[in-house]
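BUG: 3D viewer hangs when loading the predicted structure for this chain

Environment: internal workstation, default settings.
Expected: structure renders.
Actual: progress bar stalls at 90%.

Input used:
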Amino acid sequence: MVCSLRGHSFNLKSMTARTQLNRMCKPTANYINMRWRIRSRSTAAHVLALNRERDQTQPFLPGYKDSRITVNLVRNHLSPYFLTNTFIKYGLIDPDYRVSRHHKVPTLACSSAGEFFDYLCENIPAGANIERIGISCPGLIDRNNVVRSYAAPRLHSLYGANLYEEMKKRTGIGAQAINDAKAAGLCELKLGNARGSKLSACLIIGTGGGGCICLEDNVFWGADGFAGEFHFMAYPDERTGETLKTGREIGTFGLINRYNARAAEEKQVKLGKEITDRYFAGEKLAGEVVPDWIHRIALQCLTINVTIDPEILLIGGGISEENWFMEAVKKEYAVVCRQHFDGAEFLSAKIERCRYLNDANLLGAALHTNQSKYLLDPE
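Structure tokens produced before the viewer hung:
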């Protein structure tokens, strides 16, 4: 595949031409170092199935279980990439932040950052006139575009990688990178429901419960780039003495774990939607677990609002599209506030859903890239 970037062309497959025909969908013998190779997009479904099997055999490191990567390809234009444990989403975005086209490929568990970025660049759409590249992905990304933490299992090879340098080696364009929740928060600040606010926060409910703080006209990064990582807020488990991550309790990971801990073997679930469907069908166990989950989310909203005192707290993630969910969280939040403050009402923060859902990470990566002081190469 030949791609035209910033006025010149290069062959994305030249670096792997000799080995491309030999790539097959087979696991290595060692599950710890297992990786999957893909020869063409026709094998994508098989690769996803194999990677799911791998994830079930390898324990997750602390942190996020889900990881999406978005890649922004800007054509006069910005090209953002959204990286996740399941897929890599590519988008072509114009100067008015309209997504003109996008596609996905499966995320492969690679043995090195080099192998991962080779695969990432091989799937850039041909013929795209790209000027800038932005990337959003899970984990801690510092201001120099270096991945400082482990995130999803299939993205472990990115730990310590400089995303700017890796992309520049392969495309001639250095990519600007931002954490996925920060990208969503920036999108809402500039284009969505936080627009016009001086201080806002986002809480993204997915597998975990990440987030973002926006101050004035930009994301608030903090000293280490870790500000707004609500997933990692800690609290003690009195039963076990462990220190737990709040994100694992308020995300679907926590909902599923609490349900399965009490359900009979034949009633075990893998998806949060299975539990909410049973909740609306009147199942007794779901009727106890779902309200408890909503209560935990409401408590996290209260903690965020007490700590930051934002003008607006936006809730994102797929579940936020459900009207019943948003109404339940708002109602429980009001109850929690009255109980906690003995009936006083002085927190004025509004709780609303994010405006942008499916493309929030792509748009946020594009916005971050456009406003980055490292946008132009020094040469």
